[in-house]
Design goal:
About 50% of the residues lie in helices and about 15% in strands. It is α/β, with parallel strands linked by helices and about 290 residues long. The protein folds into 3 domains: about 5-70 and about 115-190, P-loop containing nucleotide triphosphate hydrolases (Rossmann fold, 3-Layer(aba) Sandwich), CATH 3.40.50.300; about 80-110, no CATH class; about 195-285. The strands form 3 sheets. Strands 2-5-8-1-9 form a 5-stranded parallel sheet. It has a two-stranded antiparallel ribbon with strand order 3-4. The protein has a two-stranded antiparallel ribbon with strand order 6-7. Bound molecules: adenosine-5'-diphosphate and magnesium ion (MG).
């Protein structure tokens, strides 16, 4: 295991993830202290990705639970395979089996249990509980219990406990506030947009082959966009996509025309695009060129 925050940063970098020192240290501490890690931040800032890269780096299976409104236990933790249970009952009846107690025990055994992510993560894993802000409060309450001692109680079967507790990463895009009780259990990091230097390093890792100059221009442009009052600011994912798009179009420098043509890669709302296209794009390109 990584001994320091710097080792953790190196482990992540080997998987193409460029973390700032605070994030790397928080990840390191979460691992060392066996605490869940809550990552909050705007969409596209690398919250989901860090779980993927960390799982690979640690050699752990990634188990991902994508949260949504109305998600229930049967989607999150476990469900009984009713069709197979019914089949087993029919077969028992056909065979003339009349021992109901025995039948009940056999159809409520692990053979008929379908593991969903939370139960699945009880074997050594990295459990990613993604976009927790989309789930509802009853689910958070259930999660709280689970995070306390990583065990799941199945009424028909008993309590299943993790021998090696999973590494747990929770993410939130902050469409609503995650409950205090969850926050207290976790170590916390706000994943911000990267600095220009870090974003250049991310492009080097994620859009290999891109020319140094174009990469610098893309980053300078995107960083300027993020200072504007737009409805949805471009995330790191958008910078990477833009780099790929411009490479695809064989462009090696930004021009106002190129920006106008490709704005749909960066901005996903018409009001934002209308605001930037034309004069504003030209102004930003001029600033970027003057600064480089
Ligand atoms: N620090 C980073 N290092 C490398 N790639 C990153 C980083 N941050 C974001 N990315 C890239 O941006 C994309 C979007 O990140 P993602 O984790 O899906 O964002 P979020 O979950 O915060 O919405 C990822 O596919 C990844 O390629
Ligand atoms: Mg995500």
């Amino acid at each position: 295991m990584a001994e320091t925050g710097a080792d953790t940063a190196a482990l992540l970098a080997r998987g193409g993830y460029i973390a700032d020192p605070e994030l790397a240290t928080t990840v390191h501490l979460a691992l060392a202290m066996h605490r869940p890690l809550l990552l909050e931040g705007e969409p596209g800032t690398g919250k989901t990705e860090i779980a993927r890269v960390l799982a690979t780096g640690l050699g752990r299976r990634l188990v991902r639970l994508q949260c949504y409104d109305g998600m229930d236990l049967s989607a999150a933790a476990y469900a009984w395979d009713h069709a197979r249970q019914l089949m087993a009952i029919r077969l028992a009846e056909a065979a003339g089996d009349r021992d109901r107690g025995e039948l009940t025990r056999s159809i409520f055994s692990r053979d008929f249990l379908e593991r969903r992510p939370l139960l699945d993560a009880i074997d050594p894993a990295l459990l990613l509980i993604d976009e927790l802000d989309r789930a509802d409060e009853p689910f958070e309450a259930y999660l709280l219990e689970l995070l306390a001692d990583f065990q799941i109680t199945i009424p028909e079967l008993g309590t299943i406990r993790a021998t090696i507790p999973p590494v747990v990463i929770l993410t939130s895009n902050r469409t609503r506030e995650v409950h205090d009780a969850i926050r207290r259990r976790c170590l916390y990091h706000w994943v911000d947009y990267p600095s220009a230097t870090r974003e250049r390093a991310i492009l080097a890792a994620r859009a290999p082959g891109i020319a140094e100059r174009l990469s610098a221009e893309i980053v300078a442009f995107v960083q300027r966009l993020r200072r504007l009052d737009l409805y949805k600011l471009p995330g790191v994912a958008e910078s990477i996509d833009w780099a790929a798009a411009l490479t695809h179009l064989d462009r090696d420098t930004l021009t106002p025309e190129t920006v106008d043509e490709t704005l749909g890669v960066l901005l996903k709302y018409q009001d934002d695009i209308a605001r930037i296209r034309g004069a504003e794009a030209a102004r930003l390109v001029a600033e970027v060129q003057a600064a480089s």
